[in-house]
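Thread: Newbie trying to understand structure tokens

Hi all, I'm a second-year student working on a class project, and my supervisor (Dr. K.) asked me to get a predicted structure for one chain before our next meeting. I've only ever worked with sequences, so writing a 3D structure as a token string is new to me. If someone could post the tokens and maybe explain what I'm looking at, I'd be very grateful. Here's the chain:
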Amino acid sequence: MRATHLAARSGPTTEPATGPTTEPTGPAAERVAAETRQPALAMAPLIALSLGYFLVMLDVTVVNVALPDIRGSLGTGAAALQWIVDGYSTLFAGLLLFGGTLADRWGHRRTFLAGLGLFAVASLACAVAGSSAVLIVGRLGQGAGAALLVPASLGLLQAVHPDRGVRARAVAVWGAVASVAFGAGPVVGGLLVSGGGWRAVFWLNLPVAALAVALTLRHLPPAAGPRHTARKADPLGQLLGVVGLIALAGGLNEAGARGWTSPLVLSALGLGVAALVAFAAVQRTLEARTPEARTPEARSRTGGRRAPLLPPSLFRAPSFTPTAIIGLLISLGYYGMLFLTTLYFQQERGFSALTTGLALLPSVCMGLVAAPLFSRITARTGPHPPMAAGLALSAVGFLGWLPTGPQTPYPVLLFALTATGLGQTLTALAATAAIIDAAPAAGTGIASAVFNVSRQVGSAVGVALFGTFAASASDFTAGLRLSAGLAATAFATGAILALTTTRRRANTRTAEGK
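---
Reply by user tm_fold:
Sure, no problem. This is what the structure looks like when written as tokens:
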């Protein structure tokens, strides 16, 4: 995306009016050669990698419409239902950085296959679960498998497509799969629940994972993707991060049922905050001990010394921190409201699982509209203007939920559904491009991992927090309205951050041009 943006800004190249005609050299020659070659995509490896990502994104939304049936079948309480949704994204976020580090040390292909295997085994456990506890453990296992296969699949995609232009097209396909999977989740879940019960939601993962494994073994060579063994892992940082996220989400989950002053809730929240503060301290200490290793290139030459899992210096890169915060805010607001919206249609309106999936389509299918719209706008303006526009659109859309009641006609809700879906997807695409632009030249991998962590943390906190609002409010729709107001505030805050970053970047470019 960055290459496209720079090429669009550079404009056409003209030859001098006099003198001999010469062939273009330097960057101009590279652009001409890239435009004339246009190598083909390696379709079989791309399908294998996209199938893995498809599973990860499908299971973000496919489970939501099955929640009422799960509650009726297993006698699941409100807190357990939240953990069935929240546990997946929480462990995914907690292990994502570890997954990226493991892929670099152990090999991307082996890590990708391990993630697929773990995801499949965990899906099997979910499908045969006889209790809420087993189902939650299975969902945690799915999150761990996703944390392994996502960074490994992106590393493999880059290794299989070394040409920058082809790799950009491959990444676009890989990302488009996420939008299709996310949008199809509620409908697929509704069809599966209506036809085969909630367990069919998890049985579906097994043949897809098996196909992805077969394609990987056949079409991706064992040496695909680099391996770096110089860096030692950061097990203490990983442990503190996982404990902090799980304890924080657990406290938020239990607050709705036990109350915010419950000793268990206060202890879990306190443990979560303490663990995350300790995590930040450990990362700063490790980076201070290796001051020469504050760039990705230098960290690969640290001679085996332990390096921080998340280098704090990364957050000093221009616009990196605001964009990471925006990633957290949009996931907190959108996924939190998606969780409540699903329950609203099924509990308050009496919709079936399939009808609920269809009702959510105007929101979750907006990725198919936002992707081409984003690519056209960004080629002319860069990622920050469409990011601010998407945030503002979603903020207004969430306000459309404020008058909602138990009998609100569905057409009245269409604007809220459409605006929030389009705005969120437009923002997510723009933020992904912006986070890569803001990262050091050789640090796009860790930058992308941080952005995914921020999004997963936002999703986990949003589902937990909005779930407690709905559980503790006088009635469900009151909790829904309160959550919609908070979601609108989160997106409006993100819009302010995006506009501030855009203005700062414009001032910087103006100063550099003087």
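A couple of things are worth pointing out once you decode it. The longest helix spans residues 476-513. The chain is about 80% helix and 0% strand. Feel free to ask follow-ups in this thread.
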